[in-house]
Structures are given as C-alpha cells and as structure tokens.
Amino acid sequence: GYESFGYAWYVWFLCQLADDFSYYWFHRQNHVVRFFWAAHIVHHSSENFNLGTAVRNGWFTILYKPFFYMWIPAIGFPPEMVVVCLGIEALWQFQLHSVYVPKLGWIEKIFNTHTMHQVHHAQNVEYMDKNHGGFLNIFDKMFGTWKELDDKIDIEYGVVHAPDSYNPLVILTHEYKDIWNDMKKSKNWYHKFMYCFGPPGWSHDGSTMTVKQLQNQLALERVELQQKTQSIDASKVTPPEGKKPKLARA
User: Fold this and answer.
1) pLDDT tens digit string along 30-50?
2) Please, how many CA atoms are within 13 Å of residue 187, restricted to the half-sphere of its CB?
3) pTM
4) Within the chain, which residues score under 50 in pLDDT?
5) Residue 86 backbone phi and psi in degrees, to 5
6) Distance CA 204, CA 186 (A)
7) Nearest of 161, 167, 218, 154 to residue 34 by alpha carbon
8) What is the signed CA dihedral for 145, 150, 152, 154, rounded to 10 degrees?
C-alpha cells in the first residue's frame, strides 16, 4: 500500500526542492512547446513588470500543470505537504514581479531574485527563454538557462508578437488562433505537428525563427561586428604594404 514519507523537517525540505524541480520543467516547457506557450503567453504579453503582471495568467495551464507534479505525492510525499509547497512557490513567484528591488548579492548565488525575473520577462533576444526557476536558480544553472541581468542592456518587457487588443478573450486565445492558421500553411503532417508542439517561432519555410535561431543569429552578428572592428583598428596601426613606418626622431 501507499506509505507516506511523514512530516519530518527534512521531508519538508526535500518536498520543496522537488516542487521547485517540477516548477522549473513545467515553466521551461511553457516556453519551448508552442501549445503550452499559447496559455503562458498571457502572462508575458504585458509590457509592464509589476505585481499586476504576477496575477495575469492564462486559464488553460491548469489543464496540464498537474502532470508535472503528480510524481511528488506518488513517491511518498504527503499530498497536503505538496499543496503547501506549491503555495510557497506561488508566493515567492508573486513577489518577484518588481523593478524596485536591486541585485541582492550572495542571495543570488542560490535563489531566483527580482532582477533575474526581469530577465525572464524581457523580449530582448539575448534574454529570451532564460531563468525559468521558481525560488531557486540552481536548476537554471544546471541545465543552461541561467542569465544574469546586464545593466548595459535596456530591458523591453512583453512579447515580440503581442495581441493588438485589450479584449480579455483575444488575449487568452490569440496564440491558439495563430497556431491553427500556421498549421494550414502546409499539408505535411510533420509540419502541422511542429507548428503546434514545436518551439514557438518554428516554421517549415524559414519565414519565422525560434528563440535559439534568433540567439544564434545575434551571436553571429556580434562576432562579425567584433571582427570588423578589430580589422578597422588594425588598419589604423598597420602601414600599407610597401611602405615603411616613419620612425620618430629622438
């Protein structure tokens, strides 16, 4: 039969850790699977970053979110303990939505902080799909999705293709409509599948790009710019071929 792990302090600690692990993967899939993104985009389409944004959520995530957490009570953590841990996670996430809290020093070594969540809500290409963690950032660092706030970059909040409407129904459903329209672009069933369950921005004809493609393009452009700059700098100090540099007189 079912045996609970009990309620010792270390069980609470492990349950909270398991909850944060589940939250990381739930949140990350909301960004890399377009069908999930269609629900989660509601939270990101706001161009503001405040506590109001924290409660601006899609209605349809509740249909699949439990599947990411079912394993926790299944292996022995008391269900009521899991519910409490989910509540703690939600409260931490709520208070992260603020631009008024600066970097927090050593706390940022372990915990997900306000500036890290600002990065997460930015539509700047270098910041997209970063910092998915709940109250910890260790899983972002472990799985390669962590990004520190760069004070030299002006953050633009929101999404690249925001709904041009204040109608709540449009805001809640516009991405599903876009998925349907994209699926009709090709008769190939693999293409249809990818438009629905592939990463946002995927296209069979290259007309749109995924976040990874955009970030790779940005990185390439920066490398080319750096090489061009170095070439210009070198030409300023290297004399033309066939000419010897004039030596300064003592």
Assistant:
1) 999 999 999 999 999 999 999
2) 0
3) 0.89
4) 247-250
5) -60, -40
6) 8
7) 161
8) 60
The helix/strand/coil state of 114 is helix
Report the amino acid identity of residue 185.
K
| Rg of the chain on CA atoms, in Å | 24
Q: Taking a C-beta distance cutoff of 8 angstroms, is the pair 174, 168 a contact?
A: no
Token pair recorded at residue 171: 């805001």
Angle, CA of 199, 201 and 202, to the nearest 5°? 65
Residue pair 134/20 in contact by the 8 Å Cβ criterion: yes
Longest CA span, the chain = 94
Distance from C-alpha of 203 to C-alpha of 183, rounded to nearest angstrom: 10
Token pair for 88: 């703690």
pLDDT in tens, 157-202: 999 999 989 999 999 999 999 999 999 999 999 999 999 999 999 9
Place of tokens 């506590």: 51
d(CA 111, CA 118): 14
Question: At CA 131, angle to CA 125 and CA 134, rounded to 5?
Answer: 150
